[in-house]
Amino acid sequence: MMVLSSLRPDANIVEYLMHRARAESVRGLVARSLLGLAVVIGGLALIPVGKPAIVTLAFTWFCYAVWGLLDRARSTQTRRYNSGYLNALCALFVWLGVMSGIGFLMSVCLLLLGAPWIL
């Protein structure tokens, strides 16, 4: 029996992101989360123009990678223990990622309008 590893043609963005995070290796997710955190921390001090756009996009990327790690831990923990705290952490990082994504869109719009939005 063959199992299809690709998505349906009409898959939405949430299904696509879940598929990518679950297909990524643990090493890749850790590297993505560390790189995103490094850009967030480094972007707060060094980048003069477009700082909000870069920092919020990097934080969205960080939240996505951490969610992928927590989702992988949650899927292995549900066989052994009750993973209520992992469900709460997954929900927290999804919420933080969505809010950061909205902040990224707002900062790009304000940069295009020429408003000086400074952190």
Describe the structure.
There is one protein chain. The chain is an all-alpha fold and 119 residues long. It has one domain (25-113). It contains 4 helices and no strands. It has helices at 13-23, 26-46, 51-77, 84-113. α2 (26-46) runs antiparallel to α3 and α3 packs antiparallel against α4. The mean pLDDT is 81.
Calculate the terminal CA-CA distance, rounded to whole Å. 55 Å
List low-pLDDT spans.
Answer: none
Write the element-wise H/E pattern from the N-terminal end onward. Answer: HHHH
Count of alpha/pi helices: 4
Largest sheet: none
Shape: globular
Protein structure class: mainly alpha
Mean pLDDT level: 81
What's the total count of β strands?
0
Which range best describes the helical content: under 10%, 10-25%, 25-40%, 40-55%, 55-70% or over 70%?
A: over 70%
- Count of the separate structural domains: 1
Task: Work out the strand percent.
Answer: under 5%
What's the alpha carbon Rg, rounded to whole Å?
17 Å
